[in-house]
């Protein structure tokens, strides 16, 4: 009942030449059986939207400001992303939390801003290695969910991404048991707070060193509804096998 989602986060990578990767993805997946999302850097959102016109690939932003407009040099609002043709926005990524000291309360404000502009918010949570080693993972995730999510949301406007910080860009991947434990925990928290119907319908993505070679086993884990992929989303040849694995899962 939850439509699967293969999402690519290009982070601070890509120039107009990279749009060729979208053409290649289109050709490789003329009619994908899962939702496919690419979040390029803000400079490429408009041209990426043009590149995927008449195709099911969705384009998203990687962050937005909590306010709709104003004196915030260098920032982009949710309505600007929407105007550029984006339909999703990643919020609260651990790199934003670290590089820009984004705390849960701000992520919640941004999520509300995304919803107000009719964007689907992909809200990221995840523990550091120290927090995992101290056996605090489930508490940390629960706290991030409680603080980063608004009181009112639904499965149409919100996706959760579990991204253990220590697995991002490191090639280290949690065991499938570890992934399953956190995803089940997130599901339980969502059902508790938003009711069974909504809680059960929200998609939960796994992110952190997902590749074509490990996608099958990750997608077989309960409550994993797709992936948020960094490095392996930059090239269509790397991302395409992940889409295919998700279609087969
Ligand atoms: P990697 O796939 O490069 O580990 O990055 C994951 C991520 O942070 C996606 O948002």
Describe this protein's structure.
This protein has helices at residues 19-28, 45-51, 78-84, 94-99, 104-116, 129-133, 137-148, 176-194, 196-201, 212-219, 236-248; strands spanning 5-9, 35-39, 58-61, 88-91, 120-125, 158-162, 203-207, 226-229. It has 249 residues and is of the alpha/beta class. An 8-stranded parallel β-barrel has the order 1-2-3-4-5-6-7-8, surrounded by 6 helices. Strand 7, helix 10 and strand 8 (226-229) form a beta-alpha-beta unit. The radius of gyration is 17 Å and the shape is globular. 1,3-dihydroxyacetonephosphate binds at residues 9, 93, 163, 168-169, 207-210, 228-232.
Give the arrangement of secondary structure elements.
Blueprint: E1 5-9, H1 19-28, E2 35-39, H2 45-51, E3 58-61, H3 78-84, E4 88-91, H4 94-99, H5 104-116, E5 120-125, H6 129-133, H7 137-148, E6 158-162, H8 176-194, H9 196-201, E7 203-207, H10 212-219, E8 226-229, H11 236-248
Parallel strand pairs: 1-2, 1-8, 2-3, 3-4, 4-5, 5-6, 6-7, 7-8
Helix pairs in contact: 1-11, 5-7, 7-8, 10-11
Bound molecules: 1,3-dihydroxyacetonephosphate.
1,3-dihydroxyacetonephosphate (13P) binds at residues 9, 93, 163, 168-169, 207-210, 228-232.
Characteristics:
249 residues, alpha/beta, 15% strand, globular, binds 1,3-dihydroxyacetonephosphate
**Structure annotation, total helices:** 11
Strand arrangement, largest sheet?
Answer: 1-2-3-4-5-6-7-8
Q: Order of helices and strands, N to C?
A: EHEHEHEHHEHHEHHEHEH
State the share of residues found in helices, binned by percent. Answer: 40-55%
How far apart the termini lie comes to: 13 Å
**Overall pLDDT:** 97
Strand fraction? 15-25%
| Uncertain segments | none
- Shape designation: globular
Strand count: 8
Helix/strand-derived class?
Answer: alpha/beta
Q: Cα-atom Rg, whole angstroms?
A: 17 Å
Report the sheet with the most strands, covering strand number, pairing sense and barrel closure.
Answer: 8 strands, parallel, barrel
The molecules bound to the chains, other than polymers, are: 1,3-dihydroxyacetonephosphate
């Amino acid at each position: 009942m939850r439509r699967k989602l293969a999402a690519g986060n290009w982070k601070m990578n890509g120039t107009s030449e990279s749009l060729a990767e979208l053409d290649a993805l289109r050709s490789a997946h003329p009619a994908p059986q899962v939702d496919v999302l690419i979040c390029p850097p803000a400079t490429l959102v408009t041209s990426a939207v043009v590149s995927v016109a008449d195709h099911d690939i969705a384009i998203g932003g990687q962050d937005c400001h909590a306010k709709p407009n104003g004196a915030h040099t260098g920032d982009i609002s949710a309505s600007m992303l929407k105007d550029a043709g984006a339909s999703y926005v990643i919020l609260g990524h651990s790199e934003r939390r670290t590089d820009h000291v984004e705390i849960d309360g701000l992520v919640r404000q941004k999520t509300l801003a995304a919803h107000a502009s009719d964007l689907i918010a992909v809200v990221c949570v995840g523990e550091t290695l120290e927090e995992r080693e101290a056996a605090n993972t489930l508490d940390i995730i629960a706290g991030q969910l409680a603080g980063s999510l608004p009181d009112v949301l639904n499965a149409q406007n919100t996706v959760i991404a579990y991204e253990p910080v220590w697995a991002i860009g490191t090639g280290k991947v949690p065991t499938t048991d570890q992934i399953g434990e956190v995803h089940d925990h997130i599901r339980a928290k969502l059902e508790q707070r938003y009711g069974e119907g909504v809680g059960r319908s929200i998609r939960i993505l796994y992110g952190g060193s997902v590749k074509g070679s490990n996608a099958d086993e990750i997608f077989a884990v309960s409550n994993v509804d797709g992936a948020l992929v960094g490095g392996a989303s930059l090239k269509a040849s790397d991302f395409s096998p992940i889409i295919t694995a998700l279609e087969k899962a």
